[in-house]
Write a structure and sequence with these properties.
169 residues; 6 helices; 6 strands; 6-stranded mixed beta sheet; Nuclear Transport Factor 2, Chain: A
């Protein structure tokens, strides 16, 4: 009876100890994030299916309306790199906030050369921002991108002019 009691005590102690150990998500997710940033920085999208889930959702400024699927993500990366050919994201910090999400702080640099919503200016851009990147197992499942639109527009050489007081009335 003592042996059974001792065995159960050891088993319970071991299970309590093991349940307190946190999994190190960074070992599994860091290589995926590195591949994802490399795809953005190089425009080489050929490996996206290996680390991005088919249901991936990208949400970005200004409206955070989701772009769903790998094809829409690839199209967005291509459009971005077309107007900013030297587009580059440098990761500055990572914060794992759960077993399914990480916040990546970054600085994005490049030269605005193409026409998009705004005319090309040739201006250099250097903007800090962050992404919340979601993952499930060995695939990235989504990203929310946030940065200052005002910083972006000012660095491209545009001015924000408030309406005159006559217009407001």
């Amino acid at each position: 009876m003592k042996k059974i009691f001792l065995f159960l005590l050891v088993l319970i102690t071991l299970s309590l100890f093991l349940s307190c150990i946190k999994e190190n998500y960074s070992e599994k997710i860091n290589p995926l994030i590195d591949k994802y940033l490399k795809a953005w920085n190089t425009g080489n999208l050929s490996e996206m299916n290996n680390f991005v889930d088919s249901t991936f959702e990208l949400r970005k400024l200004p409206d955070f309306i989701p772009l769903s699927g790998i094809k829409n993500l690839e199209d967005y990366i291509i459009r971005t790199r077309t107007v900013i050919p030297d587009f580059f994201i440098k990761e500055t910090n990572k914060h794992f906030i759960s077993d399914t999400a990480v916040v990546v702080n970054w600085i994005f640099t490049g030269t605005y050369k193409g026409e998009n919503d705004l005319p090309p200016t040739g201006s250099k851009i250097n903007i800090p921002g962050f992404s919340i990147i979601y993952f499930n197992g060995s695939k990235l499942t989504g990203e929310w991108i946030a940065f200052s639109d005002l910083t972006w527009v000012k660095q491209m050489g545009f001015n924000i002019t408030p309406p005159s007081t006559e217009t407001i009335k």
